[in-house]
Amino acid sequence: MLPLHRLLAVAFLSAACAALLPATEKPKSVAIVFAADDFKPLFNGKDFTGWVNVNCHPDTFFIKDNTIITTGKPTGFLRTEKQYENFVLEMDWMHVNKKEVGNSGLFVWGDPLPAVGTPYTRGIEVQVLVNLEYKNKEGKVTASSHGDVFAIHGAKCVPDRPHPGGSMRCIPSEYRAKGGGEWNHYKVTANDGVIKLEVNGKEVSGVSKCTPRKGYLALESEGAECHFKNIKIKELPSTNPKPEETATVWAGHKSIFNGLDLKGWKTADESWKVAGGHLKSSGKALLVSDAKYATGELVFDWKVPAKSSEEIAASLGGTTVTVATGGKVKIGVVNTQLVVESVETKVVKPGAWNRTVLTFEGKMATVRINGEAVGKVKSENAPPAGPIVFHPAEGLEIMNVFYRELKEKK
For an engineered disulfide with 294, which of 148, 227, 313, 385 has Cβ 3.0 to 4.6 Å away? Predict the structure, then answer.
């Protein structure tokens, strides 16, 4: 319903128009356009004010002619600084690929950091894609280039129409997206856990019962050049999501690996290489950061082959955590030679991606693996600042390397 002052304005203008017409004529409807309709620019056309490059190379996203452009390499995302709950978002997008697949997306209600083992956030994805379509054996479309909406990496939703394969993905009712080299317009209405997508002026997709239903918005980099412009948003009243329905809040973590090269790191004899957005070890030499760190928190995802007998190890501020693929965890403090060995744990997933969080505050070091606390150790003195070090292991891959500063505990 319109606010009272707008209703009065409409009534006044309608009455004024009627007074100017002959008594025998009925007044025609009058179109009233309110200034900007409460939309605000989500992108100012000049710089990335209000946006954060989460895990990509500094050149992955850039601005030209009032347009955000992603090179698509490496895979990752550019998110908003603030979280959004209920809103209407409009934007124009264009892939440059006219024949090859062009892949990107808009993430809704996402977390500030990527999910474990993926460069993308947990959230609801609004597909931005051209030149690709998948069908099952019965010939039914299971994924399309034309406006799919679906849950990713731990998020949940219910599609407006059941998916042929039973997944949490809404296939559009009508194909309205234009191909590569042409601009498309999206209107995304998100309210109380419900998302509706309009493609070039008509609603075609939707999902409901979304979790989370409040979080960050993001533009995706996924292997192809894609352009975004005219991004604007109108926020709607809150419907009071529960804490478990809200994405996590950024805690200060910043990426220290750009996904494309070893800038900021050094190793010997090319023992570490970058491929597919991952750090890959040949098992010969250390990988050492140029910068030094002390009190803070290191987050990284790692994986070794399922049948590997290798141990993986990382160091932060003089503290080293060693993880055996069988699940045994050791924590050592260099300056005191103190080593604490944990009991066997099942939190480590052989052959799969694992997330290790090493927190070092003053004299205390704690380790969490896949969300579970697995050990802690206190040294006699706080070690001096030092580089982050990843120890070599055959077949070891590392991604999503983040660090945040912490205030030292006395």
Answer: 385
